Amino acid sequence: MKIGLIFAGQGAQYTGMGKELYDYSRKAKEVMDLAGEQVKEWCFEGTKEMLRQTHITQPCVYTVTMAAYEALMEEIEKQDASLFDSIEIEGLAGFSLGEYAALTAAGTINDIRKGMDIVTKRGTWMNEAGLGEDGVQRGSMVAAFGARQEILDCVADVKEDGILQGVNFNSPVQTVVAGDKESLERFKAEAKARKIKAIPLSVGTAFHSEMMEPAATKLQNLLMECELKAPNKRVYSDVTAEDMMKGTEEMDEAGVSRFIAELMGKQAMSPVYWQEIIENMVADGVECVIEIGPGTTLCGIVKKIKHDMITLNVQDMESLQHTVKTLIENK
Fold first, then answer.
1. How far apart are CA 181 and CA 195, in angstroms?
2. Where would one find the signal peptide in this protein (predicted)?
3. Residue 57's pLDDT is what?
4. Residue 58 near residue 306 (C-beta atoms within 8 A)
5. Which of these, 6, 86, 4, 95, lies nearest to 285 by C-alpha position?
6. Active-site residue, selected from the candidate residues 25, 171, 183, 208
7. Does residue 96 have an active-site annotation?
8. 176 with 320, same domain?
9. Which of 57, 107, 136, 265 is the right S-S partner for 232, CB 3.0 to 4.6 Å?
10. Are 44 and 16 within 8 A, CB to CB?
């Protein structure tokens, strides 16, 4: 059975995430101990409002996601060798922040501590990029439900001179729109008039919009120094929805590292083509996706794209054990 691993992004966080895996899995505990006491306190006891702050959310979600990934690998290794041999991972993808976890699992980021440092700075810079002169966040996001083109037409009609963009193309019926708060208010009013349902998201700013340009530049400069490696498995890019290494066959190691740094810098201010990523996974033969990290949001979205896809997840003990049991039954 061909499997796609998909990694959770910002918005999936909740109080207590990762605690069961920390108490059960030696590997998960190692990851979360590396993150430090402050991150563990945020994950286990942080309030909803605290965990909504970008500079806190990103290191927390990345840490719990990598802990869940290591717990899954540890649990698979406990089984007989035939299970390990039967698992065919066709590719990996991560939703926004989750792409950093995918790149860590694929060896591009060769040290979890390096990954934690990257996403911590990413969260801080994205938070700063969203602040107005008064120090208050000037952006936000809403999930709009309807045909993609109708939503983009609505965006174009009310954008005026503000920041307003379709930034997450999640499924055939869901597009996330980001922008400054005034533009978003115009969008919500016009969407209501056009009978397009629009729900505000619990995020701190306008991710993946042009508002994030200052953060994208800083991030690219940081990643240029990280000696990024070519992934050891296919990673579907949020920016292109295709194998991120497509077109790099003739590059040397330095060229590959530079290419990935530029792509991931661009990712911070570019739309996420999640629907196309899942469609490309299906075209490549993926029959089952396993969502790694807090929540089950991505599994729900996948079902709206490919209703008969087998969806599993790993975020706590129950989901870990169910996933391993299902893999054993289907080996």
1. 21
2. none
3. 93
4. no
5. 4
6. 208
7. yes
8. no
9. 107
10. yes
Task: Kindly state whether residues 77 and 199 are assigned to the same domain.
Answer: no
Alpha helices in the chain (DSSP H): 19-24, 26-35, 37-45, 48-51, 54-78, 81-86, 98-105, 112-129, 148-158, 181-193, 213-224, 253-267, 274-283, 297-305, 317-329
> Pairing state of beta strands 164-171 and 174-180?
antiparallel
Mark whether 192 and 258 lie in a shared domain: no
List the catalytic residue out of 96, 209, 237, 319. Answer: 96
Residues 323 and 263 in one domain: yes
Same domain, 19 and 87: yes
Confidence band (pLDDT; 50, 70, 90) for 83? confident
Say what angle helices 54-78 and 317-329 make with each other, to 10 degrees.
40
Residue 21 shares a structural domain with residue 59 = yes
CATH number of the domain where residue 107 is located: 3.40.366.10
Q: Is 311 left (phi over 0), alpha (psi -120 to 50) or beta?
A: beta
Q: State both tokens at 100.
A: 């950093």
Q: Tell me the one-letter amino acid at 316.
A: D
115-140 pLDDT tens trace: 999 999 999 999 999 999 999 989 99
Domain count, the chain: 2
Over range 227-252, report the average pLDDT.
96
Whole-angstrom distance, CA of residue 127 vs CA of residue 137: 8
CATH number of the CATH domain containing 161? 3.30.70.250
Burial class (CB in 10 A: 0-12, 13-18, 19+), 214: middle
Same domain, 166 and 265: no
Closest CA to 281 of 222, 241, 310: 241
| Residues of the domain holding 100 | 3-130+211-330
The verdict on 8 and 150 lying in the same domain is no
Q: Given pLDDT bands bounded at 50, 70 and 90, which one contains residue 215? A: very high
Which element (helix H / strand E) includes 139? strand 139-145
Active site residue 208: yes
